[in-house]
Fold this protein.
Amino acid sequence: MRDLVFLPGFMLNQSLWDDMLPDLSALGHVHFGDLGQDSSLAAMADRVLQNAPEQFILFGFSMGGFVAQAIALKAPQRVLGLGLLNTSSRPQSEAESAATAAQLALAQRTPFKGLTSRALASSLHPDRATDRGLLDRLQAMALENGKEVFLRQLSTLRDGSYADLHQIHCPTLIVASDADRLRTVEESAEMAQRIPTASFEIVRECGHMTPLEKPHELSRIISNWIAGSAL
C-alpha cells in the first residue's frame, strides 16, 4: 500500500488534516511530518526525510510546500509524487523580510498568546472569517505549537529561497484557492508553468485554509490525481 506524507503550514500541525483523514486513509498509509523543531527549510527537509518511509507521495501545505519542494529536489528517488497546496516558490521580498524581522524581535520579548485575530481571519475565505469553529481550531494548533515553534518558524520564513522547479520530474499536483489572501492563484500558476509534470487545480469559494474549508473537495482532487497519475 502506498505511503502518503503530509506537511502542515505555519503554526499548524497534523490536526490540519483531521477532516480529510478518513478519505486519505483509504488511499494509503498516512504519515505526518514535523516542521516545529527546526529553523531552516533545509533542516526541516532533512528531518522529514529521516522519519519518512523509503518512498512516498509528498504533500506540503503553505510553508510545508516550500519544505516539500526542497525534499523533492534533495531526494528525487524517494518522492514518487508531489502535492503543493496553497503554496509558492517565490522568495521572500525585502519588505516581507523586514516585516518578519520586526515581528520576530517583538515576539522574542513578549509572551505568546497565539495568533492575532486579524491573522487568523485573513487565512479564511471572507465569508468564513468570523466562523468561530474554524478560528478556534486554527488558534488551538497555534497554542499547541507555542512560542518556541513560533520563533523558529518565523526565522524559517525569512530564508525562503527560489526552488529549481524545472528539476522536479515526478507527477506533481498544484492546488490553489480562488479567495486565498495569503498565497495567490498566480503564484501557483507560476509553479505549474515551471514543473514539467504539473497538474493544476483551483478550488472555488475557498480561502487559504483549504484542508479545513473544503476538505472533501481537496480529498477528491488528491484521489483523482493519484489515480490519474498511476501512483
Q: What stands out?
A: The longest strand covers residues 79-85. DSSP finds nine helices and six strands in the chain.
